[in-house]
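thread: overnight batch results

M.L. [08:02]
morning all. the overnight job finished for the chain we discussed friday. pasting input first so we're all looking at the same thing
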Amino acid sequence: MKQFIRKLFGIDKLLAEKEKAQLETAKAKEEERITKMAPKERATAKGEPWVSVLDTKVNKDNPRNGFFELDWNDLFIVQLKQAGYGFDGDPEEEIVDRWFRDLYSAMIQSEGIDPKDRTAGYVNVTRLPGGKAEIE
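M.L. [08:03]
and the structure it wrote out:
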């Protein structure tokens, strides 16, 4: 009987519109919350892999040596593992280092340079607080 009366007077449509408006409001609030987050937090909240270069330094005495400070989320590590860069139990820094070396090699090769003939400095990984690493 309730259904009949709701349908007869259009109350069912009003209730559906109200529910739709509430869902849209909740979605808008969630989007606003996400836009206020830092990029890493935003990507993680959206379930997306994320990596970024936080800092780049070059040794003023020897420009062949320098470092990139990278930061990433757990989803990026999962993506790298799925791509064959690591296995469960591997330190995250090593997994990212393998990926970064491949990325570097691909860039060098795209310029027509054989990475084996390229002389460069050494790579040193220093673990930093907060799950970060400095790669020199």
